[in-house]
Amino acid sequence: MTNLAQWLSQHAVDQKLASVVASMAAASVEIDQVLRRAPITGQIGVVGRTNIQGEAQKALDVISNDVVLKHLQDNPEVSILVSEELDEAVHFGTNGPYLVATDPLDGSSNLDVNVTVGTIFSVLDAAGGLLQKGSAQLAAGYAAYGPATNLVLTFGQDVTVFTLDLDGDWVLSKEGLRIAPASEEYAINTARERFWDAATKGYVAENVAGESGPAGKRYNMRWVGSMVADIHRILMRGGIFMYPLDSETMSKGGRLRLLYEANPMALLVTAAGGGATTGRQKILDLQPNDIHQRVPVILGSAEEVARVEAWYERG
Ligand code: P6P
Is residue 55 in some structural domain? Predict the structure, then answer.
């Protein structure tokens, strides 16, 4: 069996970049260990603070952020950290060539009910500054803490999956992951239908119409409420994830964050042959204006994403 270190070496990944990915992988192992014992150690629950997003910070949000911070500040190749849990970017004072943007624990509201959550990260050239397009990412990935703990990585071309073994080693479990171009599954929070725009309503209505409708096939709907869980399912068996701009999120630009949720997931899905759009623009082409900027996110199987884009083109 090939492990992460061997795979990175065999694929001649730049050693400094590989060390950044390895640091995030090591942080994810430590976070995995914390999560799996949290109900025993009592680390479930909120800390009575809100982050810049205005969301109640869970104890595990703060712990996970501290774990990532520890691993990255100990890596001389990383000079800047942008985190969902930190109002400002952290400058480590090194000349490290890389910037890491991360959501240390995405979906943490699901922890109390033992649903899959994850750590999402994006690696960029620090010289490019804090506000770079997603197309400039040098690597992106996530750890999914589920029945198995997976690490899903891309350096822009292929998508590779590792599974955490019982001895704490990341073992290669899938290479060259490709996302199914078509699908019969869509993921959207349907409780928000009253806020949706015409394009979202039109696309979902076609799916709900099933075999006798314009889509000509029966669809199923899945919404975990944990982006990493939904995206992992979509990468593994196809589908589309939608958090479109709606009348309620309009004022904030969307729900999900560009630098450390939308961009890394868009690079992964695109590298696997899928599509990633706001509905009107490719996510990877967006020019960020703030490190915590929110954007609409529609990504997944190419044919499904194209149908949504066609709805937006109708105006
Ligand atoms: P809603 C989790 O808080 C998150 O950021 C994503 O992981 C998830 O896809 C989304 O929000 C869920 O949002 O509005 O359905 O609770």
Answer: yes
